[in-house]
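Shipment paperwork, digital attachment
Item: protein structure file
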Amino acid sequence: MSASYINIRKCLACFAIVFPVLLIGCKSYPSLSPDDKHLAHDYLIGPGDNVDIIVWRNPEVSMAVPVRPDGKITTPLVEDLPASGKTSTQLARDIEEALSKYIQQPVVTVVVTEFVGPYTEQIRVIGEAAKPQALPYREEMTLMDVLIEVGGITDFAAGNKARIVRNINGKQHQFSVRLDDLIRDGDISANVPMQQGDVLVIPESFF
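Attachment content:
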């Protein structure tokens, strides 16, 4: 068996392995539109947030506390109260209910001072970003805002093959986005709205 024949067989074997991977990488997804509307959003408290709890006329039980990793807070007279996933108003009402055992008709205001948000609300960036990370969602956040936060993409990124994984009515959907067009060509039509819980996947270029 000649050496050239063996080399040809090796090349065909490699192609048989690589070609399906390339096909998967080239899978197309529907595109998002820059005209898509942002969803109405009330900020939800999450682990890592700091909250100021103000109890009217009761400064001794008013204080700033962190939301623990388990999503709960502890204040004077109130222990292990769940806070994660609630709005500041909802948490204030829960604290009032807990304090009503000790204080007559307590009036509570909750102010969030450091923002992280629950994990389900964060935007995650994975793959060939300069600084892959999870970001707190902000009202009317766009793809460009996310790219600024993560420092853009690497030289090895296949930016126009990136995609957003989004949960819609309990099901995962994937949408294609054009990072190269947005970053390198300044094509603003490639800038699309982000939603809470989006995952931006930036693949590596094979060529």
